[in-house]
Design a protein that fits this description.
The chain has helices at residues 7-32, 36-42, 101-119, 135-145, 193-205, and strands spanning 55-58, 71-73, 79-81, 90-96, 124-131, 151-154, 173-177, 183-188. By secondary structure, it is an alpha/beta fold. α3 (101-119) packs across α5 (193-205). The chain is globular, with a radius of gyration of 23 Å. The protein starts with 6 loop residues before the first helix and ends with a helix.
Length: 206
């Protein structure tokens, strides 16, 4: 005997199929949007924020890739390019945003090391990247936090792409470029003053 299919059963199967498709589409939309975390964080509720894993990596001189060119406009309106520092200074690049809690926590450590290297006359330049944020908001945050090292404005979130796969794509993250402009060390997540100081000194000696 052939089982009967009631109109309700057919409608139920179609509804389940449509629900499954909708769920897959929603999942795909979330996973394909690289800015979703940042956009949620910008709302100020800090929901959806994912911190770095804290991994630290140092790259031997003979394993470093080609020099990286990072350039843009600072929050105070100046043009800057990492090519100006080649052959002269080590460059410390820090990716941050005022909407990122660990970024706020590591600022005192970054500021401490920046102040120390300046006082010691070491050939080191700090440059922040204010990631996915309105420049006016970033500039106001810099004043509030008393950050004395400069930062590039990066409202569109494209500057970090200059590093390709060599850089974490979410803040906080820190990269140390050697005097040739090559990535020599990186930290995925907030970095302490002691760790950053050690990374800088090792790159200066390499």
């Amino acid at each position: 005997m052939t089982p009967r299919t009631t109109p309700y059963a057919g409608w139920r199967r179609r509804a389940l199929a449509l629900t499954s498709v909708a769920a897959l589409l929603a999942l795909g939309a979330c996973s394909s949007d690289p800015n979703s975390i940042a956009e949620q964080a910008k709302k100020g509720d800090q929901k959806g924020y994912i911190a770095g894993n804290g991994a630290i990596e140092q790259i031997p001189a003979d394993k470093r890739l080609d020099p990286v060119t990072l350039e843009g406009t600072t929050l105070d309106g100046r043009q800057w390019s990492s090519t100006r520092e080649r052959g002269k200074q080590v460059v410390v690049v820090n990716l941050w945003g005022s909407w990122c809690p660990p970024c706020i926590e590591e600022i005192p450590d970054l500021e401490k090391v920046w102040t120390d290297v300046q006082a010691a006359g070491k050939p080191v330049q700090f440059m922040g990247i204010d990631f996915r944020e309105d420049p006016q908001r970033g500039a106001a945050f810099v004043k509030t936090q008393k950050m004395t090292y400069p930062s590039l404005t990066d409202e569109s979130g494209v500057l970090i792409l200059a590093f390709g796969r060599q850089a974490p794509t979410s803040p906080p993250s820190t990269l140390v470029l050697d005097k040739e402009g090559r990535v020599a060390a990186r930290a995925n997540g907030a970095v302490s003053a002691a760790t950053l100081r050690g990374l800088i000194d090792d790159v200066l000696e390499s």
